[in-house]
Amino acid sequence: xxxxxxxxxxxxxxxxxxxxxxxxxxxxxxxxxxxxxxxxxxxxxxxxxxxxxxxxxxxxxxxxxxxxxxxxxxxxxxxxxxxxxxxxxxxxxxxxxxxxxxxxxxxxxxxxxxxxxxxxxxxxxxxxxxxxxxxxxxxxxxxxxxxxxxxxxxxxxxxxxxxxxxxxxxxxxxxxxxxxxxxxxxxxxxxxxxxxxxx
Amino acid sequence: xxxxxxxxxxxxxxxxxxxxxxxxxxxxxxxxxxxxxxxxxxxxxxxxxxxxxxxxxxxxxxxxxxxxxxxxxxxxxxxxxxxxxxxxxxxxxxxxxxxxxxxxxxxxxxxxxxxxxxxxxxxxxxxxxxxxxxxxxxxxxxxxxxxxxxxxxxxxxxxxxxxxxxxxxxxxxxxxxxxxxxxxxxxxxxxxxxxxxxxxxxxxxxxxxxxxxxxxxxxxxxxxxxxxxxxxxxxxxxxxxxxxxxxxxxxxxxxxxxxxxxxxxxxxxxxxxxxxxxxxxxxxxxxxxxxxxxxxxxxxxxxxxxxxxxxxxxxxx
Lengths: 199, 317
Known about the structure:
The complex is a heterodimer.
Chain A: H1 3-18, H2 26-30, H3 34-47, H4 60-69, H5 77-98, H6 102-129, H7 145-149, H8 157-180, H9 183-198
Helix pairs in contact in A: 1-3, 5-6
Chain B: H1 2-37, E1 39-48, E2 51-62, E3 65-72, E4 78-83, E5 86-90, E6 97-100, E7 123-133, E8 136-145, E9 152-158, E10 164-170, E11 176-188, H2 193-198, E12 217-218, E13 224-225, E14 233-241, E15 248-255, E16 260-266, E17 276-280, E18 283-289, E19 294-299, H3 303-311, E20 313-314
Antiparallel strand pairs in B: 1-2, 1-11, 2-3, 3-4, 4-5, 5-6, 7-8, 8-9, 9-10, 10-11, 12-14, 13-20, 14-15, 15-16, 16-19, 17-18, 18-19
């Protein structure tokens, strides 16, 4: 049997297995294309619009990647890095310029000062004026405990700490919400006590 | 003739200014009584940055008792029921509990249902322009903070019915942080059926004493909070375990009548962590790592204010 013949048959076998026109046995399984089968199943689901049983798309890998890239809590290092790189770039540029002409070297050094001056200025301004942002996940007014506890087990100490702090912040927000429900009653209570004392 | 008209005009505009000052407060008072008197079925959304929470709000009077239901329509859910002076909170993962008070603590500050005059120490009442909100003519009333340590609160009130149509927390720079917008309201003669059902149901007894429960103890000068924004008063302080992670915290609750903030003092988490803030809508969480202990401030206050409060906490001398 030639290769091309096999390929044509390949799709047919998968399709016919999917349509239950062919039994799934050892012979057919050898020519069975699992990816294609999953795709057919997905298409079928979508066409029958079975949205309750959402098509199963595996996003764990992409989520893990995204989490790995997420900025660590309160870490300021990444902010400083671009500045350093820029500095090195400028030094190289200067040494290249210096070789051909001294005048150009002077001009370049002036522009270097200008560039450095600017690049130094902005981060400092940021550091003084604003606060480091702890996390990008927004805390909704209603922190649902579910989202906090459904995280998988801690993988590394650093991640563990971050999680612990996130959990703590979740607990603080929830506690604030609960406690502030009593605030109005407490204010009224305090006022009543004051009035009684006056009498 | 011209000068007479001019004089009349000046006189009239002066009168308008004078009545405006009364009006802003009067409008709020009218709103508060309208909310308490009428039978209505309303839907509103709370928008915080990119987040959005839809709510349904029912209110009515059945045989002299005031009934109210507020429920969040998305996610894990929250249902709050008020029968006169008993408010019961139903939430997932906790037992329902009741508090003895005359207003539901939801997205709308409770003070707006009550005696608004007490706010005049911290806020100015300013009348804004007229706008069309939820297809109704609305009058803007601004609660303007007297200092820069708090947010302003803007309200749009239905000119016809005096009901609240829209409200927003606004920074001193005029940036809207969090807003509440009615999407639908129907005012009816008769209260909605779910409210009538309420009067025949039983709810848990209100918590015996608000200040103290079983595993809390009164705090006495454990910590010194060096700075507070003007107008905030201590309502409660104790030491208790947090519900979610069972961590022990020294706790303080402050309020200026419109907004509350909480101060938590806890043992520090291990490792080097910088202090920092995060926020959602108007709510700020500021975590300050002061070495021997962690101070966290949570509330609808600006980040700078939360930072200043957190950093002012010291051990007593």
